[in-house]
Amino acid sequence: MDERKNGEAEMTDLVILLDEENNEHHFLIVEVVEIEDNKYAVLEPVDDGEETAVVLKFDKDEQMNDILITIEDEEEWDLVVHSIGDNLG
């Protein structure tokens, strides 16, 4: 994916996420989809560990920087997974 510099936070293919113990986990953005005015990222782990793909929602922090958050709502999760399956399958 290309970097974007038109007023949005820069985005590259690599994302580093921290777990609860501040351990870094590296992911590649495989797909970004827009569903009902929200954007979601499909992330694939870089290492060949037992981790599977992760789907996170784009949001903004207090400084209006792009961040990725967990999808908490079960109905939203079902909609996103179904839509991504249709787009990728």
Shape: globular
Structural class: alpha+beta
Strand order of the largest sheet: 1-2-3-4-5
Helix content: 10-25%
Number of domains: 1
Distance between the termini: 20 Å
The total count of strands amounts to: 5
Poorly predicted regions are: 1-11
Strand content: 35-45%
Run of helices and strands = EEEEEH
> What's the main sheet like?
5 strands, antiparallel
The radius of gyration over CA amounts to: 13 Å
Mean pLDDT: 82
Q: Helix count, per DSSP?
A: 1
Q: Your description of this structure?
A:
The protein contains one helix and five strands. It is of the alpha+beta class. It is globular and about 30 Å long. A five-stranded antiparallel β-sheet has the order 1-2-3-4-5. The chain has one domain (14-88). The chain has one helix at 74-88; strands at 14-18, 24-35, 38-45, 54-60, 66-69. The relative contact order is 0.17.
